[in-house]
Specification:
Elements (H helix, E strand, L loop, with lengths): L3 E4 L2 E3 L5 E7 L1 H6 L1 E7 L6 E7 L4 E4 L7 E6 L4 E6 L8 E8 L10 E2 L3 E5 L2
Parallel strand pairs: 2-11
Antiparallel strand pairs: 1-3, 3-8, 4-5, 4-9, 5-6, 7-8, 9-10, 9-11
Length: about 120
């Protein structure tokens, strides 16, 4: 069974940092790549990062590359997204998702309830 539960969203000033966490069911961690997509009001869903395999391989969208870092803790069944240098263009609902593979055109197969990220001074 695939279960994904996000936490860690909130309000941060431009240039600030937030860390999102996703508690992932063991089944999902074993059989799926895990990543994050975001969706802002009136905008299309954007896949931003993903981690898969052992050793882990990662994917980042150009919009977040060098600012966001995805990591996985298999012992704790947790995938985290460290977001630094947050910009006015980053606010959205962020969803933890399970994918059949990481990549820019891969749709999420499952996702959690989402967590809001707001960037404002």
């Amino acid at each position: 069974q695939v279960q994904l539960v996000e936490s860690g969203g909130g309000l941060v000033q431009p240039g600030g940092s937030l860390r999102l966490s996703c508690e992932v069911s063991r089944f999902a961690l074993d059989y799926y790549a895990i990543g994050w997509f975001r969706q802002a009001p009136g905008k299309e869903r954007e896949g931003i990062s993903c981690i898969s395999g052992s050793p882990a391989k990662t994917y980042y969208a150009d919009s977040v590359k060098a600012r966001f870092t995805i990591s996985r803790n298999n012992r704790k069944n947790m995938v985290s997204l460290q977001m630094n240098s947050l910009r006015p263009g980053d606010p959205a609902v962020y969803y933890c998702a399970a994918y059949v593979a990481c990549g820019p055109q891969v749709d999420a197969a499952y996702w959690g309830q989402g967590t809001q990220v707001t960037v404002s001074s």
